[in-house]
Specification:
About 45% of the residues lie in helices and about 15% in strands. The chain is α/β, with parallel strands linked by helices and about 180 residues long. It is elongated, with a radius of gyration of 18 Å. The relative contact order is 0.14.
Amino acid sequence: MPGAASAWFSRSPTRSRRCRSRENVVAGLKLTGTKVSKSEKDALIEHCLIRGGLWNEVKDRLDAPGGGLSGGQQQRLCIARSLAIKPRVLLMDEPCSAPDPTSTRVIEETMKELATEVTIVIVTHNMQQAARVSDTCAFFLAAHGTPGVIVEHGDTRAMFSNPRDERTHDYVNGRFG
C-alpha cells in the first residue's frame, strides 16, 4: 500500500463517538479509497495502535465505541488513524493541548518514536514541549492585522539556549506570549 503525502491531526480528537476503535483506525483508508483484505486490516489496526501508543489499553475492547476512551486515549487513537494511511508527513496541531500530563507524556514519547519513520510537523504554544520533542524549531510572530513571519529557525537546542534574534529570546524566556 503506497503512503499518503500527509496526514493532519487536530488539537481536538476528531473521531466518531459511535464508531468502534477498530473502525476509527481504518477510517482514513475509506477516505483515500484504499482497499485491504480483512487479515491485512486486522494487522494494520494492531500495528497502528502499537505505534500510536494505545494497543495495550484497547486491545481487549476494539469493538467498543471510541467515545468511551479518555481524552488522551482518543488523541492517540487519532494518531493511530493518521498512521494507517502511511503518511510521509504527519501534521500535528497542538496535539497535547487537552490531555492530562500522563497522556501528554505518552503522546510525546510516541512522537519521538514515530519521528524515525515519518516527518512530524507540530504547532504548539508550549515552549517546554517544543524543546522536548523537536530537533528543528521555527519561531513565528505576527503583528496585529498582519500575517506571521518566521523570526528564526534552526536547531532546537540552539534556539532555546542561544537564540540569534532578541524576539525569540524574549519569547522562549517567557517575556511575552
